[in-house]
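Each lists sequence, tokenised fold; shown next:
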Amino acid sequence: MRIDAVELHRVGMPLVRPFETSFGVQTARAVLLVRVRTDVGDGWGECVAGSEPFYSSEYVDGAAHVIEHYLAPTLLRAPDVTAASVARLLAFVAGHRMAKAALEAAVLDAELRAVGRSFGEYFGATATWVDCGVSVGIAPSIDELLAEVAGYKRIKLKVKPGWDLEPVARVRELLGRDGLLQVDANTAYTLADAEHLKKLDPFDLLLIEQPFDEEDIASHAALAQMIETPVCLDESILSAALAVDAIERGATSIVNIKAGRVGGYLEALRVHDICRELAVPVWCGGMLETGIGRAANVALAALPGFTLPGDTSASSRYFADDLTELFVLGTGEHAGQLRVPTGPGTGVEVDEAFVTGRALSPHVTLRG
């Protein structure tokens, strides 16, 4: 198909409660949305970069700049674009995976809407409902933390030095021994903390996620030999090739897949496929997405290799309202689950009046 225009929209999305991790506190998302207008219809994608370069080197202003000046002009010049060709066309730009992923998602949305196929069908989803986990930030107190952990199949606690053993112990007590519980350090520790992290073993955690710096694969491999809790990598996994390297080096036995982090949903599929071949469980990470990104993530999480609940929470967990229809947890036999969208493309419709009303700045339209 031919891309006639690329629009960049910045939307303010206040969080219903502050979300604290080891690298800072968020009270809102400044969401960068990408809309592609093509000769077969429109598509939307969401950039998961944060406002500041703290979780990742990528951030909203940088993503918008690289899309406006390098990535979008390239797609606009191409005579024929498909989602499968986006990564190759944009490979001349080093890095900027989150920006590239947003464009690829928008192109894929337009492509699939034109032929009436859903993301789930295209990905090869085998589930119609997916188990949902929730990511719980660092709370002001233990009591406030305990009030947040209800209604989900799996709880992920953000931890950092000084906020780890006690909150984990109290949540484990609340959930019981059978409750699915894991922790995420977002690189807050070093290998010198290994003996301290070993004290998490008695809590029967599903995993400890990214305890060390993303480039320090060797220390993760060393930690995996020292503790019983499985080590999972997140920030370190930027591609299928890097996933294989980390697995073969013994640095991880579980992989968190985030489409934005690896450069798009098509690379996320490759990570899923290779991990499945290697019998390594995967789960779908989240970045406080709006309904656009959440819909795509739920479809991804419906693939057979996603054997652990992901960060695919209900919309209301983070936002009072959303720019698409809300994602609501199921009830009865589907309690703690979200239904996989079946409509064309992402399967959700963007409320353009909402996008306009929450705009942080006038949208930018790029044409060939």
